[in-house]
Specification:
This protein is an alpha/beta fold. It has one domain: Collagenase (Catalytic Domain). It contains nine helices and five strands; from the N terminus they run αααβαββββααααα. A five-stranded mixed sheet has the order 2-1-3-5-4, with helices on one face. Helix 4 links the parallel strand 1 and strand 2. It is globular. About 35% of the residues are buried. One of its GO terms (biological process) is proteolysis. Pfam families: Astacin (PF01400).
C-alpha cells in the first residue's frame, strides 16, 4: 500500500473576522490602490456597514509603491547561519525591485518567523501582518533547519515571502479554478496533505474576485501557483506550478515596487 504524501502545502492565514474592516482600512492608507473598485450598483446595496464589509473582503494588501523594507525577527532560533539562509531567500524578490528584508533584533519587526513543527507553511497576506500581535508569528516555516534541502528553501521560503509582499495564490484565478474537478481535488489534498474538504474548498476551489487581482496574465508557472496534477483537472491538463521565482514574477514585483533610480529623491 502506498504511503500518502504528507508534504506540507501552503495555507495562507486570514485575520479574524472582527479585524478585517480595520485591516482593509490600513491597507488603503498604506497604498490607496488597495481600495477595490466597486460598481455603483454594488456600492449602493445595503447599509453602509455592508459596503465596508464588501470593501474589506475585496481590498488587496500590497505595500506602498515606493518600496518594501521590512524587519524580520526569528521567534525560535538564534542560529546565525539559519537566519541568514532564510533571509537570503526572502531577498531573492529584491532583484531589480525596491524590496528588502533585514534582520531585526527588536520586538518591532514587522515579519516574525516561527518554525513550529506540524503547523505547516503559511504567511499572512501583505499589510495584514501589521494586525498580528507583536509576540505572534506572521509566517511559519514548518521544521525548517540547516538540513532542509535547498530546493525547499527556494520553493517554500520564496513562496511565503511572496504572500508577505501581498501576492495571493495564482492558482485561485477563476480560469484555473474552473478547470478543477472538485471531488477529485478534495480526495487529492486529503491524501497528500491531510486537508479537510472545507480547507480544500477555501484554498483551492474558491476563486479570487477579479477586483482582488492586479491585471496581469495568468501564470501557471509562478512561484505563487500550486502544482495541480492532470487527473484532478476537468480537461486532464496539469497545472505545472512554480518551484522558484520566475521571470514573470520578477517583472511583476519590479513594476509593483520599482527600484529607485540613482540620484532620485
Amino acid at each position: 500500500m502506498n504511503t500518502p504524501d504528507r508534504t506540507p502545502v501552503c495555507s495562507p492565514k486570514s485575520l479574524p473576522e472582527e479585524v478585517r474592516i480595520e485591516s482593509a482600512r490600513t491597507a488603503v492608507e498604506i497604498n490607496p490602490a488597495n481600495r477595490p473598485y466597486l460598481r455603483p450598483a454594488a456600492a449602493m446595496i445595503g447599509a453602509q456597514s455592508s459596503t465596508k464589509e464588501l470593501i474589506a473582503a475585496l481590498a488587496t494588501k500590497y505595500w506602498r509603491s515606493g518600496g518594501v523594507h521590512l524587519g524580520v525577527r526569528f521567534l525560535d532560533t538564534e542560529d546565525t547561519a539559519l537566519r541568514n539562509r532564510i533571509l537570503v531567500h526572502m531577498n531573492a524578490w529584491s532583484s531589480g525591485a525596491n524590496v528588502k528584508f533585514g534582520l531585526s533584533l527588536g520586538r518591532e519587526a514587522e515579519v516574525r518567523i516561527a518554525r513550529t513543527p506540524g503547523d505547516g507553511y503559511w504567511s499572512y497576506l501583505g499589510t495584514d501582518i501589521l494586525h498580528i500581535p507583536i509576540d505572534q508569528p506572521t509566517m511559519n516555516l514548518d521544521s525548517f533547519s540547516m538540513d532542509t534541502d535547498e530546493r525547499e528553501y527556494r520553493r517554500v521560503v520564496r513562496h511565503e515571502t511572496g504572500h508577505t509582499l501581498g501576492f495571493p495564490h495564482e492558482h485561485l484565478r477563476r480560469e484555473i479554478v474552473g478547470r478543477i474537478h472538485p471531488d477529485k481535488a478534495i480526495r487529492y489534498f486529503r491524501d497528500r496533505s491531510g486537508w479537510s474538504e472545507k480547507t480544500t474548498r477555501a484554498q483551492v476551489l474558491t476563486p479570487l474576485e477579479e477586483t482582488a487581482l492586479v491585471a496581469t496574465p495568468t501564470d501557471t508557472q509562478s512561484i505563487m501557483c500550486y502544482q495541480l496534477p492532470g487527473y484532478i483537472m476537468r480537461d486532464g491538463r496539469a497545472v505545472p506550478g512554480g518551484l522558484d521565482i520566475n521571470d514573470q514574477d520578477h517583472h511583476f514585483v519590479r513594476n509593483l515596487y520599482p527600484a529607485r533610480l540613482v540620484g532620485s529623491q
